[in-house]
Amino acid sequence: MKQTLILLISVITFSSCQNGKSQNESVVTADITNFWEAYDKITSTNDSILQQKYLDSLYFKKGTLGLNGIIQARNYTTKDYLSSINNFPKFWNSIRSNTLKVDQVSAELVF
């Protein structure tokens, strides 16, 4: 009886893992869209106070739990973000088009 119960629990667990995406599994792309909105505003001015305001209101405050987790885990600061945005424009311009394609391909990602 004990072995049958263990087998039954194992089968149920395995089959529930194989049912595909659950309602909670999705690719959230809002942080990418919000970043580029903030980026455009930040690069439109040299005023560092305005840049901080744009970063905070358009990116950080709209951030997902994932973004907030990354910021916290890596100890990123507003200064870090603004320094990167202002000092590496070629980098940001080189990745922009590919990052904006994420909405097109996110449905194809399999969990």
Q: In angstroms, what separates the terminal alpha carbons?
A: 35 Å
Tell me how many strands there are. Answer: 0
Helix amount:
55-70%
Poorly predicted residue ranges: 4-8, 10-19
Give the structural class: mainly alpha
Morphology call: globular
What is the H/E order? HHHHHHH
Main beta sheet strand tally, sense and closure: none
Total number of helical segments?
Answer: 7
Query: What's the rounded overall pLDDT mean?
Result: 82
C-alpha Rg (nearest Å): 21 Å
Note the beta-strand portion: under 5%
Descriptive notes:
This protein has helices at 2-17, 30-42, 48-60, 65-74, 78-87, 89-99, 102-105. With 111 residues, it is an all-alpha fold. It has a domain at 28-101. The longest helix has 16 residues, at 2-17. It is globular and about 40 Å long.
Spell out the key features of this protein.
mainly alpha, globular
Please give the structural blueprint:
Layout: H1 2-17, H2 30-42, H3 48-60, H4 65-74, H5 78-87, H6 89-99, H7 102-105
Short structural description:
This protein is an all-alpha fold. The protein has helices spanning 2-17, 30-42, 48-60, 65-74, 78-87, 89-99, 102-105.
